[in-house]
Structure formats: structure tokens, C-alpha cells
């Protein structure tokens, strides 16, 4: 039987809402943290396909945490990539401190903008035993749409932003500091999986190859044909990631 409970994570004074899914088990079980990307609508992760993905891990004997990054629906605070980086680290701390979980067997699965900030977190946090990066940009400084995206996100209320110009300046700094190409080579000997769709209309598939080239062994890359940016909707891709995390944690 799969159970779930609403949780709250305090991250640098900001409350992040989320849900922990877990199977009934007589002993500590491994866990995976699932991190979303920049949302396309103003809905929390619980109202998207993330619960179904979490339950797939539960079927394999894992606990799975889905949570809302700061500045998005379901959490407090304002959007910032550096804030998101802290959020991911604090979500891992939440899992590591749970009495239900084995802190020696934790994985991280991140999507798009969430994957972008996760590379540096994994490089610094040895508690993460395996990292699956999904549809991640390799270098957002090359994507000029980011600054226009900030303006659109505020107007549409997809991201919580008070001062657009202030946020733009912070983002410029964060894009350099958190650049995945700076951190991909510092995760080994822990394994990395890079997955991407060959029809990604937001982040070119070339990003996946650049990340793979910069990462060190053990590493694996999977490119899915006819898959777009929202790769969590691709059942074959999600099964591959689930299998890989189970194997490596």
C-alpha cells in the first residue's frame, strides 16, 4: 500500500510545500527527491504528473519526495536560482533526517531549470548517491530567452517576482555561479544519468551531449526519439530513470 503525507520544508526562512510518498515497510527504505523545473502554469506539483512518478518509485520500495521550489505555487518566497539551489539541498536534508529512510541510499531526479541548479548541489553533497538530470540546460548564459522569461513569468504569475530588474541581475550572477558545466566533472565517483528528448523545443539536445562530455565516469546518456521538453510525459524515459536510480542507490 502506498501512503502519502503533506510536508513542509524550511529553507532559509522560506516554507516549501510538498508531499512524501512511501510504501508500508518494516524497515528503513531508500528514497528519491524529485525536483521540478520552471513551471508552465500556476499549479503545485501535486496537481501535475509528479505524484504518478513518485508512486512508480514506491512500487519499487522507495520513498519519493515531490516539493515546490520557492516562488512557485505551493511554496512561499520569491523565485531565484540560488534560492532553488538551497531548496534542493534542504529537501535532501529532509529526506536524510526522516526516520523512515536509509540516509545512505538517496537519489535525486531533477527536471529542466531544477536540474540546472541541481548539478552544483550534487557536486557539493555526498549524501546524494545517484543523480538523474532530465532536460537540463548545459549553459543558460547562452539562452537569451531567460531574461524575457522572467518578465513573462511575473506577468503571468507563474513565478513570484516582486522586482523584475533586481531578479534579472541576480539571475545573471546565478547563471555563472551555478553553470552545470562547472560542476559536472566534480560528481564522480557517484553516477550520473543524463536524459533528453531529441525534439526538445526549449533546451536543445546539444545540452545533453555537452553535459555528458564534461561529466566523468560513471556516467550514462539516453536520448529519446520524438520526446519534447516535458520528458516526464514520456513513459519509456521515466521507466529508464526509475530503473537506473533503483540500480544505483
Detail the topology: elements first, then pairings:
Elements: E1 2-11, E2 14-23, E3 29-35, H1 50-58, E4 63-67, H2 81-97, E5 101-111, H3 112-124, E6 128-134, H4 145-156, H5 164-177, H6 180-183, E7 192-197, H7 206-214, E8 219-224, H8 235-248
Parallel strand pairs: 3-4, 3-5, 5-6, 6-7, 7-8
Antiparallel strand pairs: 1-2, 2-4
Helix pairs in contact: 2-3, 4-5
Question: Could you characterize what this model shows?
Answer:
This protein is α/β, with parallel strands linked by helices. The chain has one domain: Rossmann fold, CATH 3.40.50. Helices cover 37% and strands 25% of the residues. It is built from 8 helices and 8 strands, in the order E-E-E-H-E-H-E-H-E-H-H-H-E-H-E-H. The chain has an 8-stranded mixed β-sheet with strand order 1-2-4-3-5-6-7-8, with helices on both faces. Strand 7, helix 7 and strand 8 form a beta-alpha-beta unit. The radius of gyration is 17 Å and the shape is globular. The mean pLDDT is 95.
Helix percentage range: 25-40%
Largest β-sheet summary? 8 strands, mixed
Q: What class would the helix/strand composition place it in?
A: alpha/beta
Taking pLDDT < 50 over at least 5 consecutive residues as the criterion, the unreliable ranges are none
Total count of strands: 8
Strand/helix succession = EEEHEHEHEHHHEHEH
- According to CATH, the homologous superfamily is Alpha/Beta hydrolase fold, catalytic domain
Number of helices: 8
Q: What name does CATH use for the topology?
A: Rossmann fold
* Strand residues, percent: 15-25%
CATH class: Alpha Beta
Overall number of domains: 1
| Strands side by side in the biggest sheet | 1-2-4-3-5-6-7-8
- Tell me, briefly, the overall form: globular
